[in-house]
């Protein structure tokens, strides 16, 4: 009975085909617009849609092979997919080679494909018959992997395009891992770029813990890694190691090499867990961590923030004129100027910070008489306004910061400032009273170099070479090796190699002789080393590090008149050179800093699905 039914269907199909052929012959005879190939022949091009309709109608007739993909763990009985060998060979080069080969599968009536999920295989087989398939977020990656295996080129291109346009936080790492198994650089590249851009969020995803060691290293080694703090990188590595510590600890040294130690806050490594994983990671970072690498790209939008007051204009004293100048010397030679005039003249140095995404500058106002209390002001670049934070009984104060906390040094001791309460807390006494020292923060400690001290013998001020270090954690001062050159009004800055560079200043007792001297202090060995002198001797200048270079800006000199050149120092070659970046005014008191800004980018827009039609 079943054979009779099949034969009836076959006869009906043949009859339909013959009827179509007869109709086409009649149309050919009656057509007046025929392309003549010879006296008694014409070329006829058939519409492919007719063939597809016929193929769909005969979809389950005379099938000679059945396929089945990998079963989902929740499925108990996976049905076979009936199809035709010649259709598979016509649509897929992979099936063509297999079914024409001497492989055992070429002779079997059933073929199991263990590397393709069954639902994905069924969608692709239906596509081979209908030339239509819908690509969406639920199947795009699976279709891509299976289509690449079966060599269905059009499906591959559509799936790649869909995935590129719909990368988001939920699927980025899944696509990234899947695409890395395939030779598709045009898909892995945007996935990797997205992962680097959104690393701070993706490192908490469950998929992040499933990445292999090589994939983790590729991400954290990149200059393009977008993190606000290097501590986020260490935290991510720690979570990855702890997820399967038995098998992942051999990779701890390899990963530690990509941690940029100078960017870590002081004391952070000591705060890591005392677990075996935490201890090994801490030791590996300290011994093999990257100590000379430049900042990551999320910090590359640094700006030099300059405060000057122009004391001379065309040879005449012009008084106070404070202005905020902002620029990125590696990419620009033009100055961006503008800020509201401060309520009073200021006494440097200033403290610069990016808080809540906005630049803020903290300064102390100048006092009319020595011994007067100081006033703390803050400038908000977002609102272009100044705000007075309070008046404090700290005479001859110097403002500085360590790990984003403000400190006032004056009145013979250190004072810590509480920003929320707007209050000062007295801390350790300063070992020796001095003025006009170079002060810089490094590794969570405060370093003070040089300055001028009142001589009890002559009752005059003399430059000093002494140096001290203050540790806020222990609230204690420590005496350091003195500078080779005694001086005041010098400037200090931490180089990319971790050393503290002290430049310029005044020598002698009259403070009218500027020097070009440069000396580097090694915080690890407590030793000094002389470096190449600046091109122009200067004092009260700005000194700032951008990337791997130091910039000396503005200041005063006793060796020349007019505008001072901006100098750039390369510690790798120990050389100074003039750069195109020039001040828009003549000699002036300067203070500057490198301000790091976080770069935020928008995610790609999603599309719901894409349809493929041959």
Q: Can you describe what's shown?
A:
This protein is α+β, with helices and mostly antiparallel strands and 614 residues long. Among the domains are: 198-297, Serine Threonine Protein Phosphatase 5, Tetratricopeptide repeat (Alpha Horseshoe); 300-316 and 431-590, Neuraminidase; 339-429. Helix content is 26%, strand content 30%. It has 15 helices and 37 strands. A 4-stranded antiparallel sheet has the order 11-10-7-36, with no helix packed on it. The protein has a 4-stranded antiparallel sheet with strand order 12-13-14-15, with no helix packed on it. Strands 16-17-18-19 form a 4-stranded antiparallel sheet, with no helix packed on it. The chain is elongated and about 115 Å long. The relative contact order is 0.08.
Provide the β-strand percentage band: 25-35%
Q: In DSSP terms, counting alpha (H) and pi (I) runs of 4 or more, how many helices?
A: 15
Contiguous runs where pLDDT drops below 50 for at least 5 residues: 1-11, 28-38, 310-321, 597-607
Strand order of the largest sheet: 11-10-7-36
User: What is the β-strand count?
Assistant: 37
Shape, per Cα inertia axes: elongated
Which structural class do you get from the secondary structure elements? alpha+beta
Largest sheet: 4 strands, antiparallel
CATH architecture assignment name of the domain at 300-316 and 431-590: 6 Propeller
**The CATH class of the domain at 300-316 and 431-590:** Mainly Beta
Q: Roughly what percent helix?
A: 25-40%
- CATH fold-level topology of the domain at 300-316 and 431-590: Neuraminidase
Our measurement of the CA-to-CA distance between the termini, rounded to an integer number of angstroms, reads: 39 Å
CATH superfamily of the domain at 300-316 and 431-590: Kelch-type beta propeller
